[in-house]
Design brief:
Length: 431
């Protein structure tokens, strides 16, 4: 196996990639499919190119495929390592369908000037930055006279030992098809521009974690999926469990909901943090069911964010991934949603499984449109208590035994007017 360097600009490599001959290609059987990088990872690559940061070398397999009309050797180049780097730069440079840089992309200092990159497409960048990207030269190594066994061994050696976050580990367990589906959803404006995510969170791909948490909560709402937490570790197991069974109906529901959010939010919203995003996705599904307009839904979220909901705040603190606290946040936002849009909360499908109480832990004092508890006391079960001002009813007693009265010296007909007997006489009777 021989190795050589290939000094080639990005714009030249893109021409090879787009050429009818496919001079540059990626069809090795052991290669991973394209499109598995997160929006922030792609954006970080563009930032690194402009910042002249270190970028791993590209490795190409060089094969002779014939000669041209002038008798010169014709070669094709297959990407051994660097598929994501090259294809994402190429797609970014597409003037018609290019993607926008993530909202968490840092500002770049280039040739003494500061440039904002967040949310920008290639065609929106200043000409000097466009040229810097087009003329950028990756470090490229070409391998010739190799065997396929050598190529496979090199590929797995290059890609082993990578330190991954828990949610990044979930990607391998979800399978190519499902991760491609989720990655496409993460490419819209809601996840790339609207959510408030830090650079560190973006590097750990916590936007993917938020999306998986939302899918889990929707499964609880529609299928009664049981969960005790929405932590990264639990979501890792959940992601593995849905591989191959996340059907078309679920995909359509999630796609429609995220598209609704894409239309609702196109710029960064401070409320859309990691703790709140999965809750907002579930409430967005309810908004779709109630035919709420995107603008009205955005207004509701802004109103909710500026209002005081102590129960929601308490459920957003330490341990907020626990089931009970997650359900409390769903409960509060759902009831606030119903109150805002004047909906009867008991007639709208709840934001969680049917068996979960709607008002648990809340009261009418929480100002969420909770109905006052009805007095369910049955009047028939209550004792009749005489009013204090009412005269006492006479108590019937058996007439006195005449034989006892005669022995006591009291003749018949000598009862007192009040129907009783003199106290002394009673004491004598009782003697």
């Amino acid at each position: 196996m021989n190795r050589s360097n290939l000094p080639m600009s990005v714009v030249k490599l893109k021409k090879w990639w787009d050429s009818p001959e496919k001079t540059l290609r990626c069809d090795l059987p052991f290669q991973r499919h394209a499109g598995v990088w997160s929006a922030f990872t792609k954006s970080s690559l563009i930032h690194s190119m402009l910042a002249d940061s270190y970028i791993l070398p590209i490795v190409l397999l060089k094969d002779r495929v014939g000669v041209d009309e002038r008798g010169k050797d014709v070669f094709v180049y297959n990407i051994e390592d660097g598929q994501q780097r090259l294809t994402n730069v190429f797609s970014f440079m597409d003037e018609e369908n290019g993607w926008a840089l993530h909202s968490a992309t840092p500002t770049i200092r280039y040739e003494g000037e500061d440039y904002e990159l967040a949310g920008k497409k290639y065609i929106e960048l200043p000409k000097e930055l466009q040229d810097a990207i087009a003329q950028f030269r990756f470090s490229i190594q070409c391998l010739e006279d190799y065997t396929m066994e050598e190529a496979e061994t090199l590929f797995f050696n290059i890609n082993s030992g990578v330190n991954l976050s828990p949610i990044q580990k979930a990607k391998s367990r979800m399978g190519t098809d499902l991760i491609k589906f989720f990655t496409d959803l993460l490419g819209g404006s809601f996840f790339t521009q609207a959510i408030s995510i830090t650079e560190a969170q973006a590097k750990r791909e916590e936007d993917l974690l938020m999306l998986i948490q939302a899918a889990l909560l929707l499964d609880n709402r529609h299928e009664g999926l049981d969960y005790k937490t929405i932590s990264a570790a639990f979501c890792l197991s959940y992601a593995e469990s849905i591989r191959g069974i996340y059907n078309a109906d679920k995909r359509d529901m999630l796609t429609e909901t995220i598209q609704f959010l894409n239309n609702s939010f196109e710029t960064r919203n401070k409320f859309l943090k990691k703790n709140n995003v999965p809750i907002v996705v579930v409430i967005a599904k309810i908004a779709l069911e109630q035919q709420i307009e995107t603008k009205a839904f955005r207004s509701f979220i802004n109103d909710f964010a500026s209002s005081l909901y102590p129960a929601y705040e308490e459920a957003s603190g330490s341990g907020n991934v626990k089931c009970k606290l997650t359900q409390m946040r769903l409960r509060v936002m759902f009831l606030a949603f119903c109150k805002y849009f004047k909906l009867n909360a008991e007639e709208v499908k709840k934001p969680f499984a049917d068996g979960i109480p709607l008002y648990e832990g809340l009261s009418a004092e929480d100002d969420l449109g909770i109905p006052e508890p009805e007095d369910e006391t049955n009047p028939a079960d209550m004792e009749t208590i005489p009013e204090a001002s009412a005269p006492a009813e006479p108590v019937y007693t058996e007439p006195p035994n005449t034989e006892v009265l005669e022995e006591s010296g009291i003749a018949e007909g000598q009862e007192l007017e009040d129907g009783g007997v003199e106290s002394g006489e009673v004491e004598e009777i009782g003697a």
